[in-house]
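chain below, 455 aa
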Amino acid sequence: MFSRILVANRGEIALRIIRAAKTLGIEVVCVYSKADADGPWLKHADQAVCIGEGPSAESYLRSDRIISAAEVTGSDAIHPGYGFLAENANFAEICRDSGFAFIGPSPEAMALLGDKVSCKNLARQAGTPIFPGTEDAIEEMDEAVEMAQLIGYPVIVKAAAGGGGRGMRIARNEEQLRAGVVSAQQEAAAAFGDGRVYVEKFLENARHFEIQCIGDSHGNAVHLFERDCTTQRRHQKLIEEAPAPGVDPERRNEVAHSAAELIRQAKYSGAATVEFLMDRDHNFFMLEVNTRVQVEHPVSELITGVDIVAEQIKVASGAPLSITQEQLAVNGHAIECRINAEDPDRGFMPQAGLIETWRPPGGLGVRLDSHATSGYRIPPNYDSMIGKLIVHGPDRETAIARMKVALDEFEVGPIRTTIPLHRRLMDHPDFVSANFDIHYVERWLDSDSVTAAEA
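prediction:
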């Protein structure tokens, strides 16, 4: 086991990693930017090293400064958290070449699964359900047109190395497809340095699912069941829950086992999430694989009792998984609300500034993962998420009820947050009935805006 690890991240995920490491008896070093000099999580680390100015390009994205910090502090391993360099295969390779364990997959496994074309090809071998579409990146425009005619419109053009909605275009006819391929290639080349794109079927009214998996370097892989991430806005998740409501358990288990097999065949060590869309007939189609710990990992922890971050650290040290698939079972229901410092009434404008009031909720089945406190000043340089409120109950109805109480208790000011929006969503009939798709929040917010404008 490692004696000291370096956390190459900030905020709530840095604090989450610190807590997991300390339960394993491991010392922790945190790097930080000048904008985070007063970050509350730093006081929980054994050492803290400043690596640059506030902009992430001058600090958290500087692999050279992170490696230097690991060297001067005598760290054994580096945990990237999520975001920043977490899914950068080059950074994982730099860590390895510099003599530090990367708490995540090997550069080879990350590159294999991070490239959407090679990932789809491996998924075919593993029996993981995928969208019909091109098997390889498009070389000629006619390939895209022929595939669209074969599988039927609408189709979506995706960047092979893409993410975050970039390098994606929806096409409902040939004219849109031709234009979409060109613009997606240009955007992907600019954003990722890789202009390859492919075409696959697009689902109009889908639900978003993901399977939490963990693998080790001994050829083992397990799944921790699924999460439903359908409640989102513009591809940004708002609420996640587990298990997914209203899904055929037999079909769900088939997909979960296929996801674990995909991770196993990739020789993957660490936490991974295989993402899917599901149509109204409960047909699943793989979207991509996230080669890191996810923001929403706590809901899987609460229904399985597995400390995912601690397990990440252990397998990175060379230990085999401490759990088998037969030992895992779903216990109750968990829901997570992402608490962002944003104003939903003003287009979700980020709210940097001082938190004067911070009164978090409590009670049975309530968990809050957050670095924020009264007196903490939110810097303008980073993502607006300041916490994750998670509840657990014996069933979904109880979990929703507990979340309502927790949201009512949660006081943050004077900055605006998404807490009131989440409270409204808990009563939204589509959410309560789980009769929803990935666009229902946008339709609801748009209709509310129209009604307010008319009034």
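The chain has three domains: 4-103, 130-201, 207-454. The CA atoms of residues 157 and 169 lie 5 Å apart.
thats it, cya
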